[in-house]
Amino acid sequence: MNSDNDNNINNTIEEYYKRYAPMVFRRCCYLLKDEELSRDAMQDIFVKLLNVRSRINIREVSNYILRMTTNHCISIINKRNKTKKENGNDMLNKIASCEDIEDKVITKDLLDRLFCRVPISSKEIAIMVYIDKMTYEEVSKELNMSISNIKKRLNKLNQVIFNIERNN
User: Fold this and answer.
1) Which residue has the higher pLDDT, 98 or 39?
2) Fold of the domain built from segment(s) 1-92
3) How far apart are CA 113 and CA 116, in angstroms?
4) Can you tell me the distance from the alpha carbon of 100 to that of 137, in angstroms, rounded to the nearest whole number?
5) How confident is the model at residue 63 (pLDDT cuts 50, 70, 90)?
6) Is the dihedral of CA 47, 119, 156, 145 positive or negative?
7) Alpha-carbon distance values, 135 to 32, 127, 139, 140, 152 (Å)
8) Dihedrals phi, psi of 7, to nearest 5 degrees
9) Angle at CA 12, nearest 5°, toward 10 and 15?
10) What is the mean pLDDT of residues 106-123?
C-alpha cells in the first residue's frame, strides 16, 4: 500500500517537473543571469520540492514553486554577492563581456540604488508583477499581503526611482 502512495507522489513530482520546469528555468535565468547556474538551481528546486512533497497543497503548487524559486535564487545571489566582495574581479569580467556596457552599467546602478532603499519583499513583488506578469490578487495570495499593501509598495518603488532619476 505504501509503495502505491510513493509511486503516486513520484508521478506527481514528475508531472510538476514537466509542467513547471520551463517557468522555473526562465525565472532562474532572469534572476541569476547565468544559464548553467540556472539549470543547477532549477534542479535544486525540484529536489527541495521532492523533500517537501507531503506538505504541498495541490491547489497552490504553482505559487509555492514560484516562491521557492525566487527565494532560492535570491539566496544564490546573496552568496554570490558575498563572494564578489571578496573577489572584486567578477564584476569587471561581467562588464568586459557586455556588448552594450553603458546601458547595463546604468541599469545595474539604478537597480542597486533602488533595491538598497526598499525591503527585499518589495523586490519580490516587483519581479512577480513586472516579470512574471502575475496579477495583484495572485501576488497577494502568494505573499499573504493585502492588494492595497502591494500597490503601496509598488508606488514606493516608483517614487524611489523618480527620486533617483531626479537627483542624477
Assistant:
1) 39
2) Rna Polymerase Sigma Factor; Chain: A (1.10.1740)
3) 6
4) 37
5) confident
6) positive
7) 23, 12, 6, 8, 15
8) -65, -40
9) 110
10) 71
Pick one of 1.10.260.40, 1.10.10.10, 3.40.50.300, 1.25.10.10 as the CATH number of 98-168. 1.10.10.10
Buried-state track 2-16, b at ≥16 Cβ within 10 A, e below 16:
eeeeeeeeeeebeeb
CA 140 to chain centre: 16
Q: Hunting for cell 532603499 — which residue is that?
A: 117
CA 78, 83, 88, 94 dihedral sign is negative
* CB contact set of 33 (below 8 Å; sequence gap of 6+): none
Q: Side chain identity at 123, as an amino acid letter?
A: K
In angstroms, rounded to a whole number, what is the distance separating the alpha carbons of residues 106 and 111?
9
Q: Where are the domains of the chain?
A: 1-92, 98-168
Extract the C-alpha cell encoding 21: 520546469
Mind listing the pLDDT tens digit for each residue in 9-20?
555 778 889 999
Mean pLDDT of 37-51: 91
Maximum distance among all Cα pairs of the chain, rounded to whole angstroms: 67
In this prediction, residue 11 carries a pLDDT of 57
Mean pLDDT, the chain, integer = 76
